[in-house]
Amino acid sequence: MVSHFLPFHHFPSFSAFPFLFFDFHSNTNFLSGAGSGGVKAATTACKLGAKVAVADYVVPSPAGTSWGLGGTCINVGCIPKKLFHFASQLGESRDDMEGVGWGVDRKTPHDWPKMVEGVQKYIRQLRWNAKLVLAQIGVKYYNMLAKFVDSHTIELLDPKKNKKETVTAKNILIAVGGRPTYLPNIPKELTISSDDIFYLKQNPGKTLVVGASYIALECAGFLTGMGNDVTVMVRSVLLRSFDQACAKKVGSYMELRGTKFIHGSIPSNLEKLENGRKKVSWTDKDGIERSEEYDNVLVAIGRTANTAYLNLESTGVQINPNNLKVIANEADQTNVPHIYALVIVLILDPNLLLLLLWLENFFLKDFSPIPRSS
Prior knowledge:
This protein is of the alpha/beta class and 374 residues long. The chain contains eight helices and 18 strands.
């Protein structure tokens, strides 16, 4: 049982949720999105006297993976990633154990299904905690997709029951987070992503990780630690936006531990073979056409803001057409004054956002010196 070696207090109870609406001054306050930003804003709003509702629904990944309440971090991000790393490090620690006199069984392979079962059990507990907190504080929860009809009206859809409902709110907060970006010329359904890796029933086997982001390297790292044959395909450099001296040390260490790298390449073709494996073709940095078979191809080339379904055109809210992120000012306020956004990067703490709306003469703090992942 995972909680035996990773107590609850090691991790936060919530994570990034999709979409949030709130309203302090009418009978209906609506939040759509139930992750770190959404839940924190919802609970803070309730404590300040607002009536709040939350909408959250997970559209399955191209590989068919879905999950429940809790957003990215609880379900497919920070929490399972740390647990998978923990399991991987335990395996790698066998070298050190032998060096200090402990007997080590190297014949027994890692039990992937048992690990996933334990991790998912822990995640279900966190989901239950999140749902319980929302209920206890009086937040109305809708397990439904949400999109704008106009700047004050939201249509809710339950795709399973084909049921629709409409709600209105004076102030609205969008906290939709993001989903993995896929390769444009590669069939999505033949690949997996960080949305899928923590739910696989069986070990992914020989794996090609496409991408050089921290998500790509984290997944490659824990898979290597579990004994998998792992290759990372890098288009340009590792961890582009990070300190490159550190990034090179990360790459060197990963190679030392057994992870292989293909530099200066991206997949040009991927086909599924009769044996179930995936044949990946690419042109290497010297211009030579190459191909190799893998059990799985994990794409981790970035994330795209999960705003496409929101029908933001109906509100006049401006978005960045390149990454679909909502454009907001230093107070996370969009160009439509009553609509706010906590999308991808939490520029403003949701506690402070709610206080900003509630209190007069509230001074914003500068968060730019604080390191963050994206």
